[in-house]
Amino acid sequence: MPVQMGVIIYAFYWLGTWLDDKYEVNGSWGMKGLTMLGVIISLYQFIRQVNYINKHE
């Protein structure tokens, strides 16, 4: 699960950085916003997986 969280967060970070470079955004707002979105999505996935494991034990 920690590796999955790291991959999701890094993928969103990379996408945000790429979009900032492509569209020449000042302040790296794409990177910051997409990284936070990646954190939220990875936490949601983590909570969902933990709840699934607890239900099936």
From TrEMBL:
Keywords: Membrane, Transmembrane, Transmembrane helix. The chain crosses the membrane at residues 29-47. Pfam families: ATPase_gene1 (PF09527). This is AtpZ/AtpI family protein. It comes from Sphingobacterium olei.
